[in-house]
UniProtKB/TrEMBL annotation:
Family annotation (SUPFAM superfamilies): Periplasmic binding protein-like II
Protein name: ABC transporter substrate-binding protein
Organism field: Kouleothrix aurantiaca
Principal subcellular localization: other
Keyword Zinc: no
InterPro entries registered for this protein in UniProt: Bact_solute-bd_prot1, Chitin_NgcE, SBP
Entries under PANTHER family matching the protein: ARABINOSE-BINDING PROTEIN-RELATED (PTHR43649), SN-GLYCEROL-3-PHOSPHATE-BINDING PERIPLASMIC PROTEIN UGPB (PTHR43649:SF31)
Organism ancestry: Bacteria, Bacillati, Chloroflexota, Chloroflexia, Chloroflexales
Family matches, as Pfam families: SBP_bac_1
Similarity section: Belongs to the bacterial solute-binding protein 1 family.
């Protein structure tokens, strides 16, 4: 991967950056997941810190399997100063919180913003972008990406085929049948070995569109019989239709995220669910004329939820371990990372959005990013998230496994719902699991 350009833009504002955490000379030990966003932006933020604090060196180590590689350091009491805790192998946040491993980031939120005069760091973040990293009212992580997720397809290929993007899920199924009859492509594929792409991007939105936020709130709060709500039955049965009617590309279940996305780029399937990191993750294999774009999950004409709501949330969670050697340095790195300077670099080079006010000002956006921003603007601030999978690792593992089984016909919708309710009841009844509500 190309080396990040020098952070020359920081030079003019370095004098105003300050040092609110009293970071001492020495090293900031950073270990970061390098996935769809790559690691150039991580290096760029490090250069911002080093430019502002010449006696500080930011160590950048990029890894893939966060839990496997960092769990031993947590156990030994020698964790890094700042971590990008992301990817399929992340360390469950709820587990780290329960073990008192994370620093409360209230001081970071209250600190002066890096390059926005008169504002605190917290003031510059998009409202609602940090909720998934709040546990018991405390901010234990910072989401550095504003992820807009939806259904992706090649705009020119879609239009050349004469297709019209569906407004409702019923229309989606009708279109899938037409694509299947045309016989040139499968209607759908998804990241088969990582089912959270399809339940976290499609199923959760169908639940919301059918029943509104009250249904999701009941799931988050582990309420008795929450999973028996008609909206969940409807959403689960509708998602299952993709498998049951043969609309999913054969072999999808055995593919990794990049493998399924590669097959999609080859034209083997029309639709794939993903977040707006997709463009950057697949930039080296995307055909020049593919012109990928993203659209919302089609809802229900008679649904209770806001049908313009979008699957958008803060993600790519960075944490500062409480037992890190240089926690002040860890917070200072995050202060630089979520600056306007860094956010603009992120928009132009990673083709993704940071939840930073003014972060895309003057940035040249890709077509996929423009479409994602349009979805967010069209939602009028209504963004849907589920918390129970983030709060309870057992629930996250269960829905991942069971969605994989649902999407391969191993279990039927009623069985999926029954199993999930049973697991929710087990978690609710376990006194050793700390509970959260909203």
């Amino acid at each position: 991967m190309a080396e990040a350009p020098t952070a020359a833009a920081a030079a003019g504002g370095a004098a105003e950056v300050g040092n609110p955490f009293n970071v001492a000379a020495g090293e900031i030990d950073g270990v970061f997941f390098a996935g769809g966003f790559g690691d150039d932006y991580i290096k760029y933020a490090g250069q911002l810190v080093e430019k502002a604090h010449p006696d500080v060196k930011v160590k950048v180590q990029s890894i893939q399997k966060v839990q496997e590689q960092l769990q031993p350091r947590f156990v030994a009491g020698t964790p890094p100063d700042v971590i990008d805790n992301s990817g399929a192998g992340l360390i469950p946040m709820a587990d780290l919180v329960a073990e008192d491993q994370l620093l409360d980031l209230a001081p970071l939120l209250a600190a002066p913003a890096w390059d926005t005069a008169g504002k605190t760091f917290g003031d510059t973040l998009f409202p609602g972008s940090q909720t998934s990293a709040i546990f018991g009212g405390k901010q234990y992580g910072i989401n550095i990406a504003y992820t807009i997720s939806g259904i992706w397809y090649s705009k020119p290929a879609f239009e050349a085929a004469g297709y019209t993007y569906p407004k409702t899920w019923a229309e989606m199924l009708t279109l899938c049948e037409q694509i299947k009859k045309d016989g040139k492509q499968s209607p759908w594929t998804y990241q088969g070995r990582y089912p959270y792409y399809i339940w976290g991007i499609v199923w959760n939105m169908l639940v919301y569109y059918a029943g509104g936020d009250d249904v999701i709130k009941k799931l988050d709060n582990l309420e008795p019989n929450a999973w028996s709500d008609p909206a969940i039955k409807r959403a689960t049965e509708d998602l299952y239709q993709l498998w049951d009617k043969g609309y999913i590309m054969p072999g999808t279940e055995g593919l990794t995220h990049t493998e399924s996305q590669t097959e999609w780029l080859k034209g083997k399937a029309v639709f794939i669910p993903c977040g707006n990191w997709l463009e950057n993750e697949m930039k080296d294999t995307t055909p020049a004329d593919f012109n990928m774009t993203v659209a919302n999950i089609p809802g229900y004409a008679d649904g209770k939820g806001d049908q313009n709501a979008v699957n958008a949330n803060g993600g790519e969670t960075y944490i500062v371990p409480a037992k890190g050697k240089n926690t002040a340095g860890g917070m200072e790195y995050l202060r630089a990372l979520l600056s306007k300077d860094s956010a603009k670099y992120f928009a132009e080079n990673v083709r993704a959005i940071m939840p930073v006010t003014g972060g895309t000002e003057g940035a040249k956006l890709s077509e996929g990013m423009k479409a994602g921003v349009a979805l967010a603007e069209g939602s009028k601030g209504v963004a849907i998230n589920m918390n129970f999978t983030n709060w309870y690792s057992a629930m996250n593992k269960e829905i991942d496994q069971r969605t994989g089984e649902l999407m391969t016909g191993v279990i039927k919708p009623d069985e999926f719902i029954s199993i999930m309710q049973k697991k929710a009841d087990e978690v609710a009844a376990d006194p050793d699991i700390k509970k959260f509500t909203r």
